[in-house]
């Protein structure tokens, strides 16, 4: 009995100590935050962050998003997404390939805008460029856009921001592209064509946010040629008086290089780990200790903490990189 009482006291004290230790370790580990600034440039120069005429974010009441797993909330018809919450052991928060809200949801929240999400996990720009791959029932980006044009949920076009974040899947599959990786520039032209199509009857879209992160911290001649082609064609469109549109170009390379390639390194962002919290997207059984300070959720796909600073970065580009 006596021994029992003692052990309860000791246990209570230990509990108290460990609670304090947890509190103080949370205080010393700062939350994840941006440790890089936008790389603002000029449309006539090499690819860089640009705001070519987009209004302040709060002026948009609707955000229409096209993209891949980074931007997909698992429903791809513009309807409201499921809540971004985990229900273990399922590692996909409401069908997202991450553990919380997506970057574009954070952006919509910052704008106080309604999100209409058409992005699809596993999407590439144009299936026709991959004769040897069967993509099953995953629509490509061009189909996302056609589906949107077909339904075209009502919104005032001046108050709508169109988000396009593609390229990572195409870069990953570049060796499967008809005629090889140099044909990535054809895909850049497809993407520009879709912007001009959205800008035309019947949608008349005016405001575009084009996002790139093709190599996720790696780069190559073929990948850079894709990005340069995209950027140079945006410059040409901006000089063509036939088209009335505003756009921003955001290159997440600055974040990915900053975290993964040593300058300033992942610790400066408040991460404790530059890797992934889960080794795959099958289950949460081997979840890491510190998911709130880990760069990726599964390999190659950002954690919710990273999605949060991605939205911050976009806001900094819009505010700082005007021309
Ligand atoms: C943004 O919205 C505010 C408030 O509605 C308005 O006064 C302002 O003119 C708008 N700015 C632009 C650039 O359209
Ligand atoms: C959108 O897709 C979801 C899931 O497939 C479905 O439940 C919903 O009815 C669809 N909404 C529209 C407007 O088609
Ligand atoms: C956000 O929008 C809603 C309705 O569209 C409005 O009631 C609310 O005041 C807005 N909040 C902010 C912070 O602008
Ligand atoms: C996302 O796509 C990948 C590869 O295409 C697939 O393995 C995975 O199961 C998909 N996840 C969800 C939640 O759809």
UniProtKB/TrEMBL annotation:
Keywords: Signal. GO terms for molecular function: hydrolase activity, acting on ester bonds. InterPro entries: GDSL, SGNH_hydro_sf. Residues 1-19 form the signal peptide. Pfam families: Lipase_GDSL. This is Carbohydrate esterase family 16 protein. It comes from Lentinula raphanica. The lineage of its organism: Eukaryota, Fungi, Dikarya, Basidiomycota, Agaricomycotina.
